[in-house]
Amino acid sequence: MGRICLWGSGLVVIAILLVIIGLLVVRGGGVISWEFLTSTPKGLYLGMEGGIFPAIIGTVSLVAIATLTAAIPALLTAIYLVEYGKASPLAHVINFVIQAMIGIPSILIGLFGYACFVVTLGLGISLLSGGLTLAIMILPTLVVLMRDALQAVNDDYRLLGESLGVSRRYLLQKIILPVASPHLLSSILLAMGYAAGATAPIMVTAAVVMSRGSVSLLNPVMALPFHLYILFSQHISLERAYGTAVVLVLILLALNLFSLYLRNRYGKRVAFYD
Amino acid sequence: MACDRKDIVLKWCGKVCAIGSVLVLLSLYVFIAGESLPIWWDAGILPLLLGKEWQPLGESPQFGFFTMLVSTLWSSLGAMLIAAPLGICCGIFLAEYAPGWLSAVIRTVLHILTGIPSVVYGFLGASVIVPWYERVLGVPSGESLFCASLVLSIMVVPYIVSGTYAAFKAIPLTYREAGYVLGVSKLYITTRILTPLAGRSMVSAVTLAFGRAAGETMAVLMLAGNTLTLPLTWFSKGEPLSALIALEIGTAGIGSRQYQALFAAGLVLLLFVSSINFAIYYCNSRGRS
């Protein structure tokens, strides 16, 4: 009896993923075409016909801004935590705050972004507001992932460096960062996936149903997850909603699996997931 | 260790970034609390928390979160009811029973499941589970807290599995060997020896998942039905706090009473989820020392 429960639970988890993928492929696979990927939404209610090109561009720009903003501070913070501040009280405080912030619901990050960027700084509903909000959302995750990446580097390198009398900066630049780089890249990819799929934060800071013209920092943008939400909740087109979901999931799957590959291929320990 | 000028620069850059990140994250609390302060002051804490009426646009607007609080609790506790047994069983299975290749497959599957965004879960739930629920129960509209819980449970199961798995892997082999020497069955070892040892970590994994479920937005927004009546059963419709914020913040006039009330709702959710996280952090650091 107990054994059946245990095996059953494992199989249920596999079945869930198979059902999700099956549904997406069967119902959304047919919608995907070159035209769907490269044209703008059209039709009586926008989105009934046409494609999702502006939404893809919007999501890519949002993720790019978020990653560019968050990656450098996150790396420097991780370097401080691992190499310089190791056991200092400040490092303890920082670790504690970062850890606590990871669990904050994304809608609250959105609420903060709305109050801070959209209202107080007057950036309005825009690509920039959304990108910065997403940057704040992925920052704690990035710090933790990068900290672990640096910690995973064999301590012998540090001891060797110390015995040779080189500075920490030199050791970091020549040994530790190159050794950790696949792991660091893997963290960035994971964070990009997290940002690309987030809906609640951009819903209140950046996304619109339809954007015309070119992408610019201070204009609102379309985004894949928000487009999916609108297509479904406004009953515009179930078929196209499935198509959008397939594109979104494929992008995220590519990011996640590549990240997992990098970590397993180059990491010492076999990765679970985060 | 040697220290050149660049070293000092790097160290200070790191320190500044670290403190900066913490300040940015702390300002989240400040902003959400600050924007909602006037309404806490004017309306009072208890009327806001226990008021059952939410009518932001009436002649005399009323703001009470009680209905949404109850919806949040129904959907997230309900999700735990489904996810906890499934996740714990699966974690134990991965750590103790599954052959190596199957364990690797399931861990990859869980990794992929965590990578699927919540809006896709919400969408699939609303377009597949809801119609199915309507057919089985013969009700006209199937959006309900139960459906929201069902989808939330799939979303949080990976966290419970990973916590349970790590807890079991952390138990030294000696305990299992001692069991085998005494000739008891593997199932007995797992349930009577290992499970109590891993209990604390499993509780914290489930609590963590509970916090995630309580703050989740898109899935509940698309599944819970979004009505403002007090949900009396698991199968009623409801509107959790997160859904309320997502639905109304875009149309609330900046600085209006409704705007302040929505930030107050955000503060309630923030304190709720944060206290869960602090409790876990406290338990874990005490357990380690």
Element layout with pairings:
The complex is a heterodimer of chains A (274) and B (289).
Chain A: H1 2-28, H2 34-38, E1 41-42, E2 49-50, H3 53-84, H4 89-102, H5 106-120, H6 127-151, H7 155-164, H8 168-197, H9 200-205, H10 224-233, H11 238-266
Chain B: H1 5-43, H2 45-50, E1 54-55, E2 62-63, H3 66-97, H4 100-115, H5 118-137, H6 145-169, H7 173-181, H8 186-215, H9 218-223, H10 241-248, H11 257-288
Antiparallel strand pairs in B: 1-2
What does this structure look like?
The complex is a heterodimer of chains A (274) and B (289). By secondary structure, chain A is mostly helical. Chain A is 74% helix and 1% strand. Chain A contains eleven helices and two strands; from the N terminus they run H-H-E-E-H-H-H-H-H-H-H-H-H. A two-stranded antiparallel ribbon of chain A has the order 1-2. In chain A, strand 1 and strand 2 (49-50) form a beta hairpin. In chain A, helix 3 packs antiparallel against helix 8, helix 5 (106-120) packs across helix 6 and helix 8 runs antiparallel to helix 11 (238-266). Residues 269-274 of chain A have low confidence and may be disordered. Chain B contains eleven helices and two strands; from the N terminus they run H-H-E-E-H-H-H-H-H-H-H-H-H. With 289 residues, chain B is mainly alpha-helical. In chain B, strands 1-2 form a two-stranded antiparallel ribbon. Chain B has helices spanning 5-43, 45-50, 66-97, 100-115, 118-137, 145-169, 173-181, 186-215, 218-223, 241-248, 257-288, and strands at 54-55, 62-63. The model of chain B has no long low-confidence stretch (mean pLDDT 88). The interface between A and B is large, with 94 and 96 residues.
